[in-house]
Amino acid sequence: MTEERQSTPPPETVTLPPQHWRDRWRLFWRSRSPWQKRGLAFAALVAGWPLVMTLVYAIVPPPLSNVMILRLFTGNGIHKDWVSLDQMSPWLPRAVITSEDQRFCYHNGVDWVELQGVVEDAFDDDEAPVRGASTISMQTAKNLFLWDGRFFIRKILEMPVAFWMDTVWTKRRMIEVYLNIVEWAPGVYGAEAAAQHHFHKPARNLTRREAALLAAVLPNPIKRKAGKPSRRVNILAHVIQNRMGGMGPYLTCLDRKPWL
Asked: Beta-strand (E) ranges in the chain?
């Protein structure tokens, strides 16, 4: 009698994990719900917008900034007129750098020296630090792509965006964009609109004193007025003027290079 050969069950099918990153991404994406997919797409858009538009704004003047758009909801209009750095008084970028970011020409978008000092102050003192560490690059990133106000998460986002912008742009381009989008009075943005609003003259004709007054109001342009300065604003402008005299070696990045 012939023994019946017992059939051997087929081996279990083993699903190998995807080896290529594209396969892993497809598997991840297919496993997400529609709402999760929309959230991921929105996050990718938010993260990618500064990366792409920084490249665009290296050549094209930004038509608007995030802060301008958000300010519209407070009832302020938008008064602005783009002018190149060469069409501004040379005193203006010097006054603003002296007041806002004296290591502007030497940091990579984030002033780690100043930031370390702020952190040390925070740990050494029970009260909040009285100084900030926001560079002109970080303020440009905030104005263009983020939002205004005292938010810790925004400060964290500012740093990589500022570093990327400082990598792509020249220092001249950075200060040029900043001086054209920063707010100098409610609804008044940029050097040209500020010069006309406060002093009734074009930005190229600003004097050293007027440039210092504009720099003095930047920390609080809603309450401070350059055209009708308070005693405090006058004192701050006087301090800025005095400090500008010793800033020569720290402003070399403003010099026009042969290829610019």
From this structure: 183-185, 188-189
The C-alpha atoms of residue 209 and residue 258 are separated, in whole angstroms, by 30
Report the alpha-carbon distance of residue 98 to residue 107 in Å, rounded.
14
Q: CA–CA separation, 88 vs 206, rounded Å?
A: 8
**CA dihedral in degrees (211, 212, 218, 223; nearest 10)?**
-100
Nearest Cα to 82, choosing from 171, 181, 226? 181
Of 26, 150, 174, 44, whose CA–CA distance to 100 is shortest? 174
Its sign, for the CA torsion 210, 211, 216, 220, is positive
Length of the chain, in residues: 260
* This prediction's pTM: 0.80
Distance CA 227, CA 156 (A): 35
CA neighbor of 170 nearest in space, from 51, 98, 87, 256? 256
Q: Cβ contacts of residue 81 below 8 Å, gap of 6+? A: 190, 192, 193, 196
pLDDT tens-digit profile of 4-45? 555 555 555 555 555 666 667 667 657 767 766 566 565 566
pLDDT digits over 191-244, tens only?
999 999 999 999 999 999 999 999 999 989 999 999 999 999 999 999 999 999
3-state secondary structure of 185: strand
